[in-house]
Specification:
477 residues; alpha/beta; nine-stranded mixed sheet; 18 helices; binds adenosine-5'-diphosphate
């Protein structure tokens, strides 16, 4: 049995802004089910949803701050969670990265440096918790200083650093580094310095014993200039210590046979029941009720990464086709406005829902026929897996985790029952349209479509499989 400290800035259902929270909520649970002693550490934000008891454990003084460690559990599990309580930094309205008005926290570097320092104290068993991990598993830039600081300790635990998205790096001016009172020996171009700035992500990549990312294809892509966001050189230098492990999904939360958010449960044997979810959604979103019209859906942060601009360019042509288009998301105001404009001029074909809505996201996955995910890059992506589980066939770009989880419908894969969606290469409106047209042709052949849905719904995306791979990696350390 391994003792693992899992360092993360968000974990579902305590606090979530994106896919990192999904992983941090599920992977520790799966590792615990494999008999591992895993504990989470995350900041005690005001926005955390506390449904289990919270106990005071200890108080530390670090870099002139008094910090309390509180203990709770990941809701619905036995996994212990340590909340780093420093009200000055974390007891404010907003999310982990932005204040309540959507502005990035001005003191993000200070907040997460303190977080990393406390993680080191816990990892070295100096936090009065009477527990020392074998492995410290860090995630994304917010935890990036932890492996660096641990290299300065004797008898330190081994470290793993997982990249969930290279695009967010935690880069701050060198003056910030000085004000943070961090050890001088880390400040050099082979350390935390990145072209004269402090980079939290680089710190994690340089100093951790092993690096992982969330899909095998993304692990290769980030070693190239197109996807490496400036760190491709470092990543190819460390390629022998880098691997990709595909994320799983929460198979209980995303299960069309038990989902309480949807109006009609179904499985691959009762696919005709899926239609009722479409009707329900059409009613709810004030679209014409028509069980036969193909419904294309998109749920996403509305940012360039996700190819929203490509979709906007496709919409005029899509509007000439017999389809309905349903979108749920929030992000750049410019994208939101342009989407609203389309919805206003074509209320009978397009439903645009701006905001974050978990219940609606389940209803869309259950009701739609096709899911559009034309991401420019996608470290793993979750919605294409949820979609397949709900028989809603994804159209994806061949990149990152999308390439690893969707099998393109071509004669060969259709014949051997592997096809589970539609895959295109280039990030252009023309290739997206081509893939949509291919999907619509097969949609018009109910027997083939049903086979595709059944293939997609049978796939195993459980965390168990991924957790076994992480465990193997821990044992190698
Ligand atoms: P990323 O982490 O890059 O945003 P992922 O696909 O890995 O993308 O994870 C996004 C998660 O957030 C998924 O669980 C998705 O369903 C959810 N999500 C994104 N936007 C919304 C929204 N507007 N409403 C509800 N859920 C959303």
């Amino acid at each position: 049995m391994k003792k693992i400290l899992f360092v993360t800035s968000e974990a579902h259902p305590l606090i979530k802004t994106g896919g990192l929270a999904d992983v941090s909520g599920s992977l520790p649970k799966a590792l615990a089910e494999l008999g591992q002693d895993i504990r989470l550490i995350l900041p005690n934000y005001q926005a955390i949803k506390r449904s289990e008891n919270v106990h005071y454990k200890s108080t530390l003084r670090v870099n002139n701050y008094d910090v309390n460690i509180l203990e709770t559990r990941l809701p619905g599990t036995d996994v212990l969670v340590w909340l780093i309580d420093c009200p000055e930094f974390f007891d404010h309205p907003g999310n982990p990265y932005h204040d309540e008005h959507g502005h990035a926290w001005a003191n993000s570097a200070e907040r997460f440096t303190l977080f990393c320092r406390i993680a080191v104290e816990v990892a070295m068993d100096r936090a009065y918790l009477n527990w020392k991990p074998d492995i410290v598993h860090c995630n994304d830039w917010q935890s990036g200083l932890t492996p660096a600081l641990l290299t300065l300790e004797y008898h330190r635990p081994a470290t793993v650093f997982t990249i969930h998205n290279m695009a967010y790096q935690g880069v701050f001016p060198s003056s910030t580094y000085q004000s943070l009172n961090l050890p001088g020996q880390l400040w050099n171009p082979n350390g935390v310095e990145y072209y004269g700035n402090l980079s939290f992500l680089k710190s994690g990549l340089v100093y951790s014993d092993r690096i992982t990312t969330v899909s095998p294809t993304y692990a290769k892509e980030i070693q190239t200039a197109e996807f490496g966001c400036g760190l491709e050189g470092l990543l190819s230098f460390r390629k022998d210590f880098l691997c990709g492990i595909l994320n799983g999904i929460d198979m209980e939360q995303w299960n069309p046979e038990t989902d309480t958010f949807i109006s009609q449960i179904f499985n691959d044997k009762t696919l005709s029941q899926k239609q009722l979810n479409k009707t329900d959604l059409q009613n709810q979103l004030a679209l014409p009720v028509d069980p036969t019209i193909p419904m294309i859906a998109l749920i996403s942060r509305l940012v360039e990464q996700k190819g929203i601009d490509l979709v906007l360019e496709c919409l005029p042509e899509m509007l000439d086709m017999p389809i309905q288009f349903v979108l749920l998301g929030s992000g750049h105001k410019n994208f939101e406005q342009r989407l609203y404009n389309f919805a206003e001029s074509h209320p009978d074909k397009i439903s645009v829902n701006i905001g974050y809505d978990e219940v609606l996201s389940h209803k869309i996955e259950a009701g739609a026929d096709i899911f559009l995910m034309p991401s420019r890059f996608e470290p793993c992506g979750l919605n294409q897996m949820y979609s397949q589980r709900y028989g809603t066939l994804p159209i994806v770009r061949k990149t990152g985790g999308l390439a690893d989880t969707v099998v393109d419908a071509v004669p060969q894969t259709l014949a051997d029952n592997r096809a589970s969606g539609f895959v295109f290469n280039e990030a252009t409106p023309g290739t997206v349209m081509e893939a949509i047209k291919r999907a619509l042709i097969l949609y018009s052949q109910p027997k083939t479509w049903k086979n595709l849905q059944a293939n997609a719904m049978k796939k195993d995306y459980s965390w168990h499989k991924s957790a076994l791979q992480y465990l193997k990696l821990y044992h190698r350390l």
